[in-house]
């Protein structure tokens, strides 16, 4: 078997070298990720390694310890967010386990738990904001405005609508298939260079078929077919550009700025409040877990909560003595 880094296997047994460094196993693990996972995942991990873990490169693998790592990565501990630290230490532990498996060493992974941080409240567009935005989208609607309408009525992600092709849409069966997504990622080896990268969605569940309403069929039929992609002719839409278009439409509508994913949250909330069952919604959103749909994407409005509070009258009866 060929040598990888500074370790190799012989007759089924691992042979260890005294000068194995963290760098050796880190690069071997990254190469493993590149071969086994999506390229975008590899680029993400490679970027985190380059930015935060090269401080450990010259350490002997067997000298890795909680104390040594904490001292070397003091900048990370002091300056970055808990979520980022959790991600960095997560791939560090994967590198350590990979090194142990390939070499026979028994270096202990870090015992790092995810810090308890208060989750930022997920935003949706309330009814008034939706009405204002729709007025702008329906006014002199071009393909970009119609694409945002599609997101608001199907729950597509930004990368998914940006990569949507005419071949993904079947007007006869009234369905839309999510087959690809697009994102801008760094080019490996060139930290300042990026490319628009099109690839299948992050999970098998994200590859899905979405039923289209008659109104969505009408929207799609009104978009001129000027190329392969629904929004941008022969190239996928640049996600950052599309995010900026939404911001300009919100400004025109007099609605406070919110990110593109708010359309997806709003769609999910509208579906639940309209009576859709959670299982159907979960499949339309491309989730593998119904609980994820409930916890992350369903946010009852104050109007819905008030409706449920008023419905208690059917249980308690009207409080006529206090009515004027």
Outline the structure in words.
The chain has 324 residues and is mainly alpha-helical. The chain has 2 domains: 8-103, DNA polymerase, domain 1 (Orthogonal Bundle); 127-307, Orthogonal Bundle (hpI Integrase, Chain A), CATH 1.10.443.10. The chain has helices at residues 22-36, 39-53, 66-72, 74-79, 82-103, 127-138, 143-154, 158-162, 214-221, 239-253, 261-273, 278-285, 290-297, 302-310, 313-316, and strands at residues 8-10, 13-15, 169-170, 175-178, 181-187, 190-199, 208-211. The chain starts with 7 loop residues before the first strand and ends in an 8-residue tail after the last helix.
Put the structure in a nutshell.
The chain contains 15 helices and 7 strands.
Secondary-structure map with pairings?
Elements: E1 8-10, E2 13-15, H1 22-36, H2 39-53, H3 66-72, H4 74-79, H5 82-103, H6 127-138, H7 143-154, H8 158-162, E3 169-170, E4 175-178, E5 181-187, E6 190-199, E7 208-211, H9 214-221, H10 239-253, H11 261-273, H12 278-285, H13 290-297, H14 302-310, H15 313-316
Antiparallel strand pairs: 1-2, 3-4, 4-7, 5-6
